[in-house]
Each structure stands twice: as C-alpha cells, then as structure tokens.
C-alpha cells in the first residue's frame, strides 16, 4: 500500500495555477477534423483544467446550436445527422468560469459502408489505440456486427452497427481493418494503417532483476527478513496457467494482517536488468510516455486486499511515481498515487477482475514537459477509465537514477495466503 522502495524526501511544492491555465483544455479523439463520416456520428472527447474545482461539463454544438451536454470531464455519444457538411464544436466549461473549445468540421456521407472516426488512416498513435466506428448497410435487416482486424488477426467483435473500443498494439507499423457484417450475408470494410509510437521491453515477468520486499503496517517500511509476519516467493517459467507458456507466480502469506509484498525491477538506468544503464544520462530525460501492459490471473481473488501496478522514473533528484492499485477486498475500486502528499486517491472507477481468468490491464501515464505526473487512463478487460489527473513530483535524496516497474500484492485482515500469476508484461516507452 505505502511506497517505500526509495526514500522520499521533501516534495516540490508548486501552485498548479502558476503552470496551467485555469480554463479547460479539450482533446477530441473522434471524429477527426475535416473527416467524412457516417451517421450516427460518434463523438469522443476529454477535458483537463488547471481549475482546482475541476471540469464542470462538456457539450457539442452543431452549426451553432447546442445539441448535447454532459456533466464531467469526458464525453462519448452518438449524434444522428443527415447527409451534408457541418461545423461542429466540442466545448468544455470548468468550475472556475473558464471554457475552451475545439472546432471539428465534418461531412456526413449518404453512402453505405464503414465509417471510422478514430483513429485516422496513416496516423501515428500511442500503444493503446482507440477505435470508434459506425456502419450502414443496404441490407433491409441491418448490420449484425462489427470487428477490428490487426495484421490479419481478428482482435475485437461487437454486435450492432457501432464500435467503440481500445486495442493495445506493439510499437511499429500495423495494418488494421474495421469490418461490418450484415444480416443478408454481406460485408464491407475500411482499412486503417497505423504507426504505433515507442519501444517495448517485453515479457518482463520472465526477466532477471526482480527483487522482493516485505512491508509491514503501519509504516510499511521495506524489510527482507520479516518472516513469519509476511512470507513471499516468486517463481518464473510457469507453463500453466499461462498465456505465453512463461508466466510468473507470486505468492504471499504470513501472520501479520494487512502486510504487503513489493516486487520491483530496475529496467533502465542504475542496475538495469535489460542492459540499459544509460550511463551518459541521455535516454531518461528524453522519455515522457509510458504504458504498463500486463495480464494477471488469480484462481481465488477473495483474499486479495489490493494489487498494485507501478511505473517509476527517478532522475535529476526528482521522483515520478505513477502508482496504480486495484482494491479488491478493499472495495473494488481503482486508486492512484498522489506524489505530492504520499497517499492514495480513489478514482471512483470500479475494479472488478475476473477470478480464475486472465485479466488484461493497461495503464497510460506521462511525464509532462514541465515535469508533472499525468495519469491518462486505466483499462481493465477492455473497459477504459479516462483519468486526466496531474500531480507534482517528489525528491530523491539518494540520487537514484533510473526507471523501475513494480508489481505488489497486499494482504487482507487475516493475511490469508494467495497466489497471482503475471504474464505478457510489457513496458512501452517513448
């Protein structure tokens, strides 16, 4: 629960309003400006603000008429529009009286087919790709289903004429196809070629370099000789249960209630397990975007107080700790780590992993240009929660320099023993 892999120093205290405008900032991921689309048109947008009271609401104007409003900092809706050209605007209003907007001119086609509003063809995207599409058919019975192929592999299928999902892809070039199938046996498709940013450190669950520490309440300082209060082990190369045939098994037990086990691996920088020491200190300062992508399995998740998935960047005396935990026995909710105040912040997003099944978690974070921690999104089993949360960094008196990844298991009130398997664990960075 409590981070203690490295010593925390005095945190940098910065007034957010001095760095970020108080007005809302709008990002529209669908539809693309100037695109030709089908109806209904899928609008997907998020907003962030420097206003301490947050974003109040978002809306869509169509030809100067307010057509849709929703409370909060995200928007995902479909608008039915007749064929023709439209000047549309997505606007956000914050609780400090600020507002910002993005113009999105579109043309609604009268032809049948597949209309992909996100991502744009031949675009450069991050590892977690958001797909939004609609389809129409000349079949009188309508569209039966839609799907997404990635490099000739069918990665996603949904019933109906609307598609809205995200798919994690490895860095590199990919040919993707969005296809619809109608009830008359017909099908149409649209090709979307993509360049996915970043480099990948793959199969980290099987990597060398993992070190485990016990953590005992109430301070949760790390310990290496704390048995029998907390016991733990890690076994690599597990064939079953496994997706790759090389899963890792993490065990926790002991006698002290609410004790935790932290597993950490230094992947870049000091003590790099990947052969990337960055001794010239050229690589780390250039890295700003990170994706934690992994699968986890527990035959019995009932005793799990929480599972934690972290990315940490330490350099130039600053610590950037993106901590993300799924509370299970602790209340089935996602929390994120507040670097400034060293405590967990509930997100309000449900976290309900499936027992006796592989669960896919993807976490996207960023170190901003002015060195703030930015939590972008969490995705569990295809369901994405957009966060848009910012926190200042801390200090590292030890002078540690590097990037580490963590996986942590937390014990419940009985410290009941359990095991969790981890597989296909990748860190994507750029």
Walk me through the structure.
With 430 residues, this protein is an all-beta fold. It has three domains: 91 residues, Immunoglobulin-like; 85 residues, Immunoglobulin-like (Sandwich); 230 residues, Sandwich (Jelly Rolls), CATH 2.60.120.260. Helix content is 0%, strand content 59%. It contains no helices and 33 strands. The strands form six sheets. Strands 18, 19, 22, 24, 25, 26, 27, 31 and 32 form a nine-stranded antiparallel β-sheet that branches. Strands 17, 20, 21, 23, 28, 29, 30 and 33 form an eight-stranded antiparallel β-sheet that branches. It has a five-stranded mixed β-sheet with strand order 2-8-7-4-5, with no helix packed on it. The radius of gyration is 23 Å and the shape is globular. The chain starts with 23 loop residues before the first strand and ends with a strand.
Summarize this structure briefly.
The protein is an all-beta fold and 430 residues long. Helix content is 0%, strand content 59%.
Features:
single chain, 430 residues, mainly beta, Immunoglobulin-like, Jelly Rolls, 3 domains, nine-stranded antiparallel sheet, eight-stranded antiparallel sheet, 33 strands, globular
Q: How many strand segments?
A: 33
**SS-based structural class?**
mainly beta
CATH-derived architecture of the largest domain: Sandwich
Task: Name the average pLDDT.
Answer: 91
Assigned CATH superfamily of the largest domain: Galactose-binding domain-like
Using only CA atoms, what is the Rg?
23 Å
């Amino acid at each position: 629960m409590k981070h203690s892999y490295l010593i925390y120093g005095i945190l940098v205290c910065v007034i957010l309003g001095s760095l970020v405008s108080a007005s809302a900032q709008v990002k529209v991921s669908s539809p693309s400006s100037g695109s030709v689309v089908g109806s209904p048109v899928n609008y997907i947008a998020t907003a962030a603000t420097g206003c301490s009271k947050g974003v109040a609401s978002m809306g869509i104007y169509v030809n100067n008429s307010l057509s849709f409003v929703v409370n909060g900092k995200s928007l995902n809706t479909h608008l039915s529009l007749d064929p023709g050209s439209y000047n549309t605007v997505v606007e956000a209003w914050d609780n400090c009286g600020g507002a910002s907007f993005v113009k999105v001119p579109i043309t609604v086609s009268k032809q049948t087919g597949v209309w992909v509003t996100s991502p744009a063809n031949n675009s450069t995207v991050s590892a977690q790709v958001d797909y939004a599409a609609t389809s129409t058919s000349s079949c009188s019975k309508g569209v039966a289903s839609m799907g997404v192929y990635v490099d000739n592999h069918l990665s996603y299928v949904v019933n109906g004429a609307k598609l809205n999902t995200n798919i994690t892809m490895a860095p590199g070039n990919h040919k993707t196809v969005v296809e619809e199938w109608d009830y008359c046996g017909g099908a149409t498709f649209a090709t979307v070629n993509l360049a996915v940013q970043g480099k990948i450190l793959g199969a980290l669950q099987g990597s060398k370099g993992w070190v485990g520490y016990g953590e005992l309440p109430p301070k949760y300082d790390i310990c290496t000789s704390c048995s029998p209060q907390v016991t733990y082990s890690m076994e690599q190369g597990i064939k079953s249960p496994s997706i790759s045939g090389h899963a890792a098994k993490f065990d926790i037990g002991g006698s002290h209630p609410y004790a935790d086990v932290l597993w950490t691996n230094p992947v870049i920088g000091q003590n790099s397990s990947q052969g990337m020491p960055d001794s010239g200190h050229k690589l780390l300062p250039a890295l700003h975007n990170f994706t934690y992508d992994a699968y986890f399995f527990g035959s019995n998740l009932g005793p799990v107080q929480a599972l934690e998935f972290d990315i940490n960047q330490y350099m130039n005396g600053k610590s950037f700790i993106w901590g993300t935990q799924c509370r299970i026995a602790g209340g089935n909710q996602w929390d994120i780590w507040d670097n400034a105040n060293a405590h967990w912040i509930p997100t309000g997003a449900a976290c309900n992993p499936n027992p006796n099944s592989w669960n896919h978690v993807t976490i996207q974070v960023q170190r901003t240009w002015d060195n703030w921690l930015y939590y972008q999104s969490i995705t569990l089993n295809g369901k994405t929660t957009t966060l848009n949360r910012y926190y200042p960094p801390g200090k590292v008196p030890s002078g540690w320099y590097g990037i580490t990844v963590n996986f942590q298991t937390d014990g419940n009130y009985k410290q009941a023993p359990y095991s969790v398997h981890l597989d296909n664990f990748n860190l994507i960075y750029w």
